[in-house]
Amino acid sequence: MTKTTGTDPWPDRIRRGVIDGGERARRTWPQALLLALLVVLAIPAVLLVAPGFLGPEPPAPPPAAPEWQQAPATLSPHQGLRSLDASAAVPSRESLTAQVDPLLKADGGGGFTGIVQDALTGQVLFDRGASEGRVPASNMKLLTAMAALRTLGPEHRFSTTVTAGPAAGQVVLTGGGDVLLGPGESDAERVLGHAGLATLAARTVEGLQARGTTGEVKVLVDDSLFTGPALNPAWQEGDVAAGEVAPLYPLALNSARFDPAVTTGPRPQDSAITAAQEFAARLREAGAAAGLTVAAGVERSPGAAQGGADGGSGADPAVLAEVESATVAQQVDLMLRESDNYLAEALGRLAALATGQPGSNDGATAAVQAQVAAAGIPADSMKLVDVCGLAMGNQVSARQFAEVVRAMTAGTDARLREALDGFPVAGLTGTLDTRYGEGTTAGGAGLVRAKTGTLNTVLALSGYVVDADGRLLVFSFIGNGLTPGAAGNKVALDRAATALAACGCR
């Protein structure tokens, strides 16, 4: 039985345990303190050597990309663009000029002229020598686009036909203005190659069979739709040798390129004969099963063109086969996006033919200038010596280009709207795809849409942008006499356009 003393509730055994434990604790606390100190000192050592046994610590997972940068799980419904708000604030001229003017600084020699306008009202918001005639480089294609859409119409197509020749056993391949022919089957989903020579050859065989034609067939080519010199004397020999352009004919494969993926270097010097040779090869393949053979070589036909800018002569009983190009609107888009000189010159000649003028260089320049004037834009001061912008003799002002862009974006002629899809998008498409990547211009990526222009001492940028307040602005900046290759000049143009995109300049 355990003995207790007084009112103490603890049994002696518990009391002795507490007392003995306290004595032991007093005797062992120095050892415990030493052990704790060793543990504290050991932890850093373990952390230092552990990676050697366990390998490096895996990197932290990257933060999740924002939703708008992630690949969509499903396609969203087409919503289109909202109509512009005419009540959106118009930038003040003083504020916008303060933003843009310091940025248009030439890197080395030369200088920039420029203009910014409100698209809806035409109000000038920035003007630096905007009425001065300047060498515009490929901004010239904006004028050609306007002329082609006004004279030919956005939905017009060009026919390449094959007709019975002047003698038995002959067929005539007639160029009707399509310089974007493909060598293979027609592809309705493409602009370049929309009409294919393999398809035309197969249809020609069917037409010959329907006529009971057998034996050997000779291919002739009729390229008489275009007249005058095939090479513009205003073009520099070095540009032609570099493949910037080639002699003009009313039919060509791949916009007069050997390979559509190779846009520099040598080009066919006779695109009509080159196309006819490819057609003859395709006709030989298609006709073999039908007992037809094709004579070696191709020749020019002495006859007049049976196709033309009116879409060809498909109703003529002499027509054996026909293929049609992509629409004028689609071709204009391609011309602007890729800055295709050959296509621009062809469209200029076709616009001339549509207005009763010769399909020559002089006819093209006269037709383009006349159509700009007919659109209500003063054009008397213009000097045009080509319609692609390769020539140094052209003179057009920044104000005239801005008015052309304004007519396309906000004018009353709905046909001109078809050009807007062709404007390169900053940092994304066409001749602007590799620009707007640095910090001072990234704010304009995806927002600025503009046609570029580049020659040795010339840079230009004309287009449109919706500013931070939702106001549509049109602009044109042109640099002449610039130091060749100076990196800062393109950046100056891009910074100025970026400033417009960010502008809430009240």
Order of helices and strands: HHEEEHEEHEHHEEHHHEHEEEH
Derived structural class: alpha+beta
Q: Indicate the mean pLDDT.
A: 87
The amount of beta strand, in percent, is 15-25%
Helix content: 25-40%
Total strand segments:
12
Characterize the overall form.
elongated
- The Rg value, from CA coordinates, equals 37 Å
Query: How many distinct helices?
Result: 11
**Strand order in space, largest sheet:** 2-1-12-11-10
Classified in CATH, the superfamily of the largest domain is: DD-peptidase/beta-lactamase superfamily
- At CATH level 2, the architecture of the largest domain is 3-Layer(aba) Sandwich
The first-to-last residue Cα distance is 100 Å
Keywords: Carboxypeptidase, Hydrolase, Membrane, Protease, Transmembrane, Transmembrane helix
Family: Belongs to the peptidase S13 family.
Region (Disordered): 60-79
Protein name: D-alanyl-D-alanine carboxypeptidase/D-alanyl-D-alanine-endopeptidase
Describe this structure in words.
The chain is built from 11 helices and 12 strands. It has a 5-stranded antiparallel beta sheet, with helices on both faces. The chain is 33% helix and 15% strand. A hairpin with a 2-residue loop joins β10 and β11 (458-466). It has helices spanning 12-54, 93-100, 140-151, 197-211, 237-241, 271-287, 328-338, 341-354, 361-374, 398-410, 488-502; strands at 111-118, 124-128, 133-134, 159-164, 170-174, 215-222, 292-300, 319-324, 396-397, 449-455, 458-466, 472-480. It folds into 2 domains: 93-153 and 331-502, Beta-lactamase, CATH 3.40.710; 159-326, no CATH class. Residues 1-30, 44-54 and 305-315 have low confidence and may be disordered. With 506 residues, it is α+β, with helices and mostly antiparallel strands. The longest helix has 43 residues, at 12-54. The radius of gyration is 37 Å and the shape is elongated. The N and C termini lie far apart (100 Å). α8 packs across α9. GO terms for molecular function: serine-type carboxypeptidase activity. It holds the Pfam family Peptidase_S13. It comes from Arthrobacter nitrophenolicus. Keywords: Carboxypeptidase, Hydrolase, Membrane, Protease, Transmembrane, Transmembrane helix. The chain crosses the membrane at residues 32-54.
